Amino acid sequence: MKSMLSQQTPVRFLLKMRPMAIASLDKRKIRYWDALDKPLGDLFRREGMDDFLDEVSYTRIPASDTDWSAMPLYMLVDYLTHDHRSLMLREVSDITHLLDIHAIADSEEAVDLRRLQTDFKDWVRDFQTHIDQEESFLFPKVLRYEACLRDRNVHPEFHLGSIQTYMATQDAKEGRCFYADAALLAQRMRTHEITHSASIAGRELAELMENLRDKLNAHYELESTALYTAARDLERSLYNKSIDGDPTVAFQRRGPMDSGIMRLDEG
Known about the structure:
mainly alpha
């Protein structure tokens, strides 16, 4: 991790890669929410930079059995972000490698594998799009909302979009279809294994895809029940506080959603 960070690294990139860095920044009383596109070097004196990068690099990923309800949301976002990387580097890479090797053969099985390979590549592209949507918009929104409760000078930036609104868009709904598509691919790879019962590759592919499907389902469950439920409640609370004139969110009012003209209900 430390090798990926330097004085020129934008603050926004740091928070995307390691949301847990928020704890280290807050501990040092560094103001960074209004400096997300500035390099880290602008926030530190040179002698403090190395200690900070060491601390961020050696901070452990939260455990999967953490009681998330008792922890800051940035810990959960850190875990989910790591989960994205892990799924891509392990299961997705292993499946891609097996298909690349065995789909080039001149055999009846390879013909079927090439069809699976094409569809799996399409699925990976959808998964990468989903990850980018979460890590570029949804996760930063959650982190900013949580920061609003710790620091009245952090503005919720409602004018740049709402989690509740985004989750209801067609793009978001389509983006979540890849979970169902993963289940279908797992079923197809298991069928392929049965059809080609002597194929070691077929058995490995079926097992890997089912493992990936199960991990994705667990990931989705954690996002849905722990992260986005809490995030929507937090967003609604911040919206309504802004309408009531609460000074916590009264800083830099901008845009129609900041104007106090509407209140979000429980829906």
